[in-house]
């Protein structure tokens, strides 16, 4: 959409959505959280950071990435759990979205030219 008015509206929507995620905190103890939900929110925060250049969006993406690793990975397993309430891997819950989002966070903080595109991999 480039620099068009619809493009500006879309970017404003992305930043507004990410702003909500700055304070919303999921509760893995009571909610059945899917890995892909974390991945999608992390991507939204990264997009807001890339649009606005405000560090608060990147900081929150990093915090949620750390939380997702704690919630979805067991030390003895290479793949994330499907959800906060399961003990098995399942791609249907968006584990691939989370993994790509974690790579995007790593790339964002370790390079000056991130190349992983913002995605939600929704089927």
Question: What this model shows, in words?
Answer:
The protein is mostly helical. The protein has one domain. The chain is built from four helices and no strands. The two termini are 23 Å apart.
Summarize the structure.
The chain is mainly α and 123 residues long. The protein has helices at residues 5-21, 35-52, 55-72, 95-110.
Write the layout of secondary structure elements.
Layout: H1 5-21, H2 35-52, H3 55-72, H4 95-110
Helix pairs in contact: 1-2, 2-3, 2-4, 3-4
Q: Quick one: overall form?
A: globular
- Structural classification: mainly alpha
Number of helices: 4
Order of helices and strands: HHHH
Straight-line distance between termini: 23 Å
Query: Biggest β-sheet, characterized?
Result: none
Overall mean confidence score, pLDDT: 89
Catalogue the unreliable spans.
none
Total DSSP E strands: 0
List keywords for this structure.
single chain, 123 residues, mainly alpha, 0% strand
